[in-house]
């Protein structure tokens, strides 16, 4: 038994959900969501 997935449909649904959450964050906090990096330790390969 196999399951056929519609990747485009799933992608569009996921993008819509992310967009809704981003809009909600903008309304609630007054700014859009953003990414942060955090350096833990002193490994030179981890430094940006």
Write structural notes for this entry.
With 48 residues, this protein is mainly alpha-helical. The chain has one domain (7-40). The chain contains 1 helix and no strands. The longest helix has 23 residues, at 7-29.
Mind sketching the topology for me?
Layout: H1 7-29
Largest sheet: none
Tell how many strands the DSSP assignment holds: 0
Tell me what portion of residues adopts beta-strand conformation.
under 5%
Low-confidence stretches: none
Sheet/helix structural class? mainly alpha
Overall tally of structural domains: 1
Topology as H/E string?
H
Helix content: 40-55%
Could you name the key traits of this structure?
48% helix, mainly alpha, 48 residues
Summarize the structure.
This protein has one helix at 7-29. The chain has 48 residues and is mostly helical.
